[in-house]
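for the writeup, i need someone to sanity check this before i put it in the appendix. the sequnce is what the collaborator sent (i think, or maybe the updated version? ugh). structure was predicted straight from it, no edits. if anything looks off just tell me and ill rerun, i have time this weekend
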Amino acid sequence: MITGSTLQSVSLYLLSQVRGFPPVIQTVHIIAISAIMGSIVLIDLKVLGLALPSQSVPELSKRLLPWTWWALPALLLSGLPFIFARPAKYELNPVFKVKVVLIVLAVALTVAFNFTSAHDQAYWERTSGRGTAKLMAIASLLLWAGVILAGRWIAYADYLLPAQE
């Protein structure tokens, strides 16, 4: 457990004593999720045939997925101070657990999509891959939307899920 650790002490200090740290780190968190959503949503919409008809899926993936891979560590690192500062709050929060599961699933799906694209660039353009790609795109959109919703709802878990008495 992190409670009483150096990580907790440093996080609490940064959040409570460093002027402007909380809003700056939250802004980094929001920019990171925006970069992820911007890149993923464009690729998913392309796969679904709803955007960018002049570009191929591999071309778009090659241009946009690096934004996702760079933003994921920023997302993680910008969220950790809040978790480390009050680990029990997050450990007991079921909405936070949902967010973590959704992130893991969304990242795994993105890795699978990226891996397939890297090994067979034409896969998503062939008839055999189109159905799979569309299902993956829909799942990706739902998972990442769930991550955002869960992230917003973490602070309101007490209201969403009243304690059982």
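The chain has a mean pLDDT of 88. The two ends are 27 Å apart (CA to CA).
thx in advance!!
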